[in-house]
Amino acid sequence: MHFISHHLEDYATQHSENEPELLAQLDKETHQKTLQPRMLSGHFQGRFLSMIAKLVNPKNILEIGTFTGYATLSLAEGLRKDGTIDTIDVNEELHDFQRKYFNLSPYGSQITQHVGSAIDIIPSLDKKFDLVFIDADKKNYTNYFYLIIEKMNKGGIILSDNVLWSGKVLEEIKANDKQTIEIDKYNKLLKDDPRVETILLPIRDGLTVSRVI
Known about the structure:
Layout: H1 6-14, H2 21-33, H3 42-56, E1 60-64, H4 70-76, E2 84-89, H5 95-104, E3 111-115, H6 118-121, E4 129-134, H7 141-148, E5 152-161, H8 178-192, E6 196-201, E7 207-212
Parallel strand pairs: 1-2, 1-4, 2-3, 4-5
Antiparallel strand pairs: 5-7, 6-7
Helix pairs in contact: 3-4
């Protein structure tokens, strides 16, 4: 679901920063070679992620859900010169696709790929994070939050994608719709947890910006 009209979104995109050529190539190949290319962040959201990363200027970024690496490279644009990105995905088949584009970028040596369950991998990461992007399996959003909140630096930013879930959070939620139940629960958690201050933005499928207090 688009929460603003296509015409308005196109206008916003046209009057935002241009999409880097490498990301345009990544977008094209993602649409050619993957079954769910709509999972890609894309031009408009990618420029938003890039802007947030540049404002934060993080030393360490954590990304939960890599897909083909579009958001990874958008976030990398704000990294410090000695910064790192740890990005986690369960899909081993996309590992080489991601690495190709990471290595074509200026940030390849700063990006570490992890394949497997984020629930298992996050506790093993021995570092503090300034910026986190959550865009993975929705049923674990709350679990991810509780795992990462203790690993965040004060003033750090947690970005959470798909928090409007095609508008399903606005409807009466069915008892067997576990993903929508979880997203709604997660949104309430971000609103009420005293460790963060949060704003939910109707960008694409909903994007929450939470600042660690």
